[in-house]
Design goal:
Blueprint (H helix, E strand, L loop, with lengths): L4 E6 L2 E9 L7 E2 L15 E3 L11 E3 L18 E5 L2 E5 L10 E8 L3 E8 L6 E2 L2 E2 L5 H13 L6 E8 L6 H4 L4 E5 L5 H7 L10 H18 L4 E8 L11 H11 L5 E6 L6 H6 L6 E3 L4 H19 L3 E3 L14 E7 L2 E7 L8 E4 L7 E4 L1 H9 L3 E7 L4 E2 L1
Parallel strand pairs: 1-8, 2-22, 3-23, 9-12, 9-14, 14-15, 15-16, 19-20
Antiparallel strand pairs: 1-2, 2-8, 4-5, 6-7, 7-8, 10-11, 12-13, 17-21, 18-19, 18-22, 20-21
């Protein structure tokens, strides 16, 4: 039987599963963690051009190998032979790569996407309130950063919605219809048009009412998109929650209730440490607090905060697809490497994540996902343009 693998597209990171049909045993091998060699070797993901569009146009080649003892060497000679087969991309790895002439199959697939529901404060203190005009210090730098985030190619793989509060009403159902519905990013038009048509001059901060509507909306879109990770982002310049019968305790209770399915991130526009309990209840630690002393700095800090939230919301696990009929997946024949412009690193299987650059199965007895350990997760998320290569067919390297 031939094992099967799958290629995944993730936000900022390319992940490729390679299934290798080899004669090696399924026993895992214990290795000392070591960084792999540079690019150009065999034994990792191979991309191909042409109609499959898995790599560059009309070209083929392999990303860097692992270089670990007992596994494929990043500096081994030989070039993988690539042909297009009926089941996807067929890759024959050379004997001197340590694979004994194994044949690999890759098919296209996708990681679970992420949906962010953004709630943006448009109260008068964000812009114009009586005789005061904070537009240049709050609304403009914040919305400029938001528009950049929504249009950023690095946001690919994420969808977002945008709703404002207050809206002058106390009906949660009104807030359940966002100004911009859930939209795949990047999108340089929809969000910018909505923001440019909105003025921050409203009275009150009915955060609880707006939150109720947002949760209702997320429930609806999540039901239509099972398996999607979702989160709420609240950006506000007010610690006080009032109007519409709202109060702080109601907000805390609601974000606590929905945190298991919708973590709540908070961006405080100003030194608003009083917002920290909301983020804590929402399962996201503390609020991101933005300095208001300089508009340029405010814009940059807000952009950094929303980018950090994007990274935190992206899942660090990879669904293992079911094998096609007549094919199998052997959990003892899986290895993971991360390749970037600085080289390639072998990630070792570590059930307790006791190594910095490790991974593990969600269920060792019957795995359905590969989970990256915390340090490896952070490395992969920060490695925009890199590739996460999951190889099937050779004995798993265990920490």
């Amino acid at each position: 039987m031939r094992n099967i693998g799958i290629r995944y597209a993730v936000p900022g990171v390319l992940a490729a599963f390679l299934a290798v049909a080899c004669g090696s045993s399924g026993s895992a091998e214990r290795r000392t963690p070591a960084a792999a060699g540079g690019s150009g070797g065999s034994g990792a993901a191979v991309s191909a051009g042409g109609s499959n569009a898995l790599g560059g146009a009309n070209s083929s080649g392999g990303s860097s190998g692992t270089g670990a003892g007992g596994g494929p060497s990043a500096n081994s000679g030989g070039t993988p032979a690539v042909v297009n087969g009926d089941g996807g991309l067929i890759i024959t790895l050379p004997d001197d790569a340590g694979f004994n002439g194994c044949t690999a199959t890759a098919v296209k697939g996708e990681l679970r996407p992420v949906m962010l529901a953004v709630l943006l404060d448009r109260s008068g203190t964000m812009g114009v309130w009586h005789q005061d005009d904070n537009t240049a210090f709050r609304w403009t730098p914040v919305t400029t950063a938001l528009k950049a985030f929504f249009a950023d190619p690095a946001s690919a793989g994420i969808s977002a919605s945008l709703q404002y509060f207050p809206l002058g009403v106390c009906d949660p159902a009104i807030y359940a219809n966002p100004a911009v519905p859930m939209t795949p990013l990047p999108d340089p038009v929809s969000f910018a048009q909505s923001i440019d048509a909105t003025v921050a001059d409203a009275s009150g901060t009915p955060m609880y009412t707006a939150l109720l509507g947002t949760v209702t909306y997320l429930d609806q879109v999540s039901a239509a998109n099972p398996g999607v990770n979702s989160a709420i982002v609240i950006a506000t310049d007010g610690e006080l929650v009032h109007d519409c019968g709202d109060d702080f305790t109601k907000v805390i209770a609601k974000v606590t209730e929905v945190a298991p399915r919708y973590p709540t991130y908070v961006i405080g526009i100003g030194n608003l440490s009083g917002l920290n309990p909301i983020a804590q209840a929402g399962g996201t630690g503390t609020a991101y607090l933005i300095d208001l002393s300089d508009p340029a700095q405010t814009q940059q800090q807000f952009l950094s905060a929303i980018n950090a939230i994007r990274g935190a919301a992206v899942p660090c696990d990879i669904d293992i697809p079911p094998a096609p009929q007549g094919q199998t997946l052997d959990p003892g024949l899986v290895n993971v490497t991360f390749s970037s412009t600085s080289g390639s690193t072998l990630l070792y299987m570590s059930a307790d994540c006791s190594t910095d650059m490790g991974w593990r199965y969600d269920n060792p007895a019957a795995p359905t996902r590969i989970e990256l350990c915390p340090s490896a997760c952070q490395t992969v998320k920060s490695g925009f343009g890199g590739s996460l290569d999951v190889q099937f067919g050779c004995a798993t390297q265990v920490f």
